[in-house]
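Hey L., structure's done. Input below.
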Amino acid sequence: MTAALTLRQVDCFYGDVQVLHAFSFDLREGEVHCLLGRNGAGKTTTLKTIMGLVPAHAGSIMKGETDLTRLAAHAIPRTGIAYVPQGRQLFTDLTVAENLEIGLMARGKGSATRERVLEFLPALKDRLRQRSGTLSGGEQQMLAIARALCLEPDVLLLDEPTEGLMPSMIARIQDSVAALRNQGVSTVLVEQRVNAVLSVADRVSFMENGRNRETVDVERLRGDPALVRRYVGVG
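Output:
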């Protein structure tokens, strides 16, 4: 199966502290691939390194024939990779519509793209003039995803999208991720909620101390909960 994104032997540091150690990982086209691991395992750093927000000191990050490590961070979204960071990082003083407009600007998209995004996430249609900081946590998460989709990405990076949300909103986000897969979007999902992973992921990579210790199909994970206990510490 063709890879949408491939990391090979990636090292990265925060100052003198090495966080990723020869990290290798591949995201297949049209799959949801989850990164699981304890806090501090390097999951968020992996996403930031893909986006050029943390420089890779060694290794390659390939999207097609393009090595992302050779691009400036502002150029990476133009390759079709969208990033929804942990904590959403919306412009809370701007309206929903203005946040979406910022997403559209990243790849020069227009009103047709915005309308497709709003059809996909229709709950935002009645909130366009509302200041994003006044939205509920779940609505803010949906807006963060919508802003990312304004790039028309083929690769989506989601960092803890269900954190702090009610079960009903978690289910909506899971449905959205599954629907994006059906549209051909490949997703890297960082998630702490194992149950949320089991319902939506195709494969899971377990991270430990900045390394990819094991990658398994989600069916194996459902049948072998000891894997979760080994790498994440919960059953």
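The chain has eight helices and ten strands. Residues 83 and 211 are 21 Å apart (CA to CA).

-- N.
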